[in-house]
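RECORD TYPE: inverse folding
INPUT: structure tokens
STRUCTURE:
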């Protein structure tokens, strides 16, 4: 049965990237911002401890495989702004954070277009063992054209990337779910036997894109398949997300677009046989909190002095649409219709009707005009969060950072206690794995209705509830 919206626990993840600037460009210069420490392992250890204190579901790691070339095909802006470059490999940072936490999950982005599935599946299983079941995978197909050049392959058309992602998912599900029977890894000194050869199986996958024999190199892990996330926003991307993801990130320029995406994703997921409570929907949000409304507003004014529209525009249009070629008054829909570079990419994502280049630039530069933005004391912030969750049918939020660790610390100190007082936020973690953070105690493995669960062997007992 579906929990009434007003009684739902609201979930939070922190949006991170192993780099200087991910969102809210320009703020890295703020004297209290620690983004310059992104390559210091102690920075990550401190972040993880703060997030676990605030009982967030997970730290979410975005990633990219090329330097974004947003302005006329040049990487100058990205490099100058520190926009996703230099950047660390997210999977490498996770063990240090896992060592100082017990419950916090770690969801990392990896691309089905460029990472071979066999080695990726092994790396994720290794992490799932080492973190005791706290890893997640954000499945991306990588939209930056530059990534293909870095991997020495021809750029792949959008929908073809999703075809490949479908097959890639099948391959890794087979490795994670079916290659090793539940009791195959025995470490039986008496027998003597490390693993039972009759219970470890090749997957012998042969498809259009992949040929993988197996068996998987890692024995069964607490979650087997890591908790799955996706953020596709095209028609094809939403369809993929609704079928495969357990946590879906919903985008959209305006609240109306956001709501239409939520409704659509819920509809497609239901058609795919997935229950409302088997798919958690998250939207990005922006929270500036302090002890009082006035103090928070002073912080916003301070941040606004440093905000850079260039970084945001290079990020948003890294797929090739170059806004600097157009006048401020030109409408986005006209630019898309004339079909310049990157226009086919932009055409997949709805813009508010009538928006011009000038509107986008102004939107980029104004921190307080972001969708799902609140600035205030604990009560104002909690009011907004409850409203967003209830009116848009969202399960939770992916919080962007203004300052690191300031945003996460203020959230833990001011927002969490207020949401807890209102009965809308956990007061302790429900279980020990990331999937349990999202779905409750006992939900350690994929739900039965998930396509990956079809690969389970009959003799393996699904662990669904304790
Ligand atoms: C919250 C959020 C996080 C995302 N993180 C990444 C990321 O880390 N790396 C990446 O290549 N794409 C990322 N994306 C882009 C999506 O995976 C997707 O490519 C984009 O929304 C376009 O949708 P489409 O793939 O359906 O065309 C993210 C999108 C959102 C909304």
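DESIGNED SEQUENCE:
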């Amino acid at each position: 049965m579906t929990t009434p919206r007003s009684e739902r626990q609201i979930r939070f993840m922190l949006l991170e990237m192993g780099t200087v600037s991910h969102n809210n460009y320009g703020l890295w210069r703020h004297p209290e911002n620690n983004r310059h420490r992104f390559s210091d392992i102690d920075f990550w250890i401190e972040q993880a401890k703060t997030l676990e204190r605030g009982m967030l579901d997970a730290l979410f790691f975005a990633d990219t495989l090329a330097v974004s070339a947003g302005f006329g095909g040049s990487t100058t802006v990205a490099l100058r702004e520190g926009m996703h470059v230099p950047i660390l490999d997210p999977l490498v940072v996770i063990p240090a954070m896992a060592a100082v936490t017990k419950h916090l999950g770690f969801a990392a982005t990896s691309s089905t277009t460029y990472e071979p599935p066999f080695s990726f599946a092994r790396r994720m299983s290794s992490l799932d063992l080492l973190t005791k079941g706290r890893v997640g995978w954000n499945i991306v197909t990588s939209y930056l054209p530059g990534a293909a050049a870095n991997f020495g392959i021809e750029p792949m058309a959008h929908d073809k990337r999703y075809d490949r992602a479908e097959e890639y998912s099948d391959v890794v599900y087979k490795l994670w779910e079916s290659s090793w029977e539940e009791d195959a890894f025995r470490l039986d000194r008496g027998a003597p036997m490390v693993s039972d050869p009759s219970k470890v199986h090749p997957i012998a996958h042969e498809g259009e894109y992949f040929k993988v024999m197996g068996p998987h190199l890692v024995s069964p892990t607490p979650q087997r398949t890591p908790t799955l996330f996706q953020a596709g926003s095209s028609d094809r991307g939403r369809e993929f997300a609704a079928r495969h993801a357990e946590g879906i990130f919903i985008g959209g320029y305006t609240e109306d677009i956001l709501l239409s995406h939520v409704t659509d994703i819920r509809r497609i997921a239901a058609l795919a046989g997935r229950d409302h409570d088997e798919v958690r929907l998250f939207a990005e949000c922006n929270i500036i909190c302090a002890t009082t409304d006035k103090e928070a507003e002073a912080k916003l004014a301070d941040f606004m002095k440093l905000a850079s529209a260039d970084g945001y525009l290079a990020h948003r249009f890294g797929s090739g649409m170059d806004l600097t070629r157009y006048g401020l008054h030109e409408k986005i829909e006209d630019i898309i219709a004339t079909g310049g570079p990157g226009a086919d990419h932009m055409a997949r994502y709805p813009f508010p009707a009538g928006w011009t280049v000038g509107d986008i630039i102004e939107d980029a530069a104004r921190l307080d005009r972001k969708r799902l933005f609140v600035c205030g004391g604990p009560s104002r912030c909690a009011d907004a969060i409850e409203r967003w969750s209830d009116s848009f049918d969202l399960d939770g939020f992916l919080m962007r950072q203004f300052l690191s660790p300031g945003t996460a610390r203020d959230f833990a100190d001011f927002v969490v206690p207020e949401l807890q007082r209102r009965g809308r936020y956990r007061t302790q973690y429900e279980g020990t794995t990331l999937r349990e953070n999202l779905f409750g105690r006992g939900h350690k493995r994929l739900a039965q209705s998930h396509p990956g669960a079809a690969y389970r062997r009959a003799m393996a007992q699904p662990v669904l509830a304790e």
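NOTES: Residues 460-466 have pLDDT under 50 and may be disordered.
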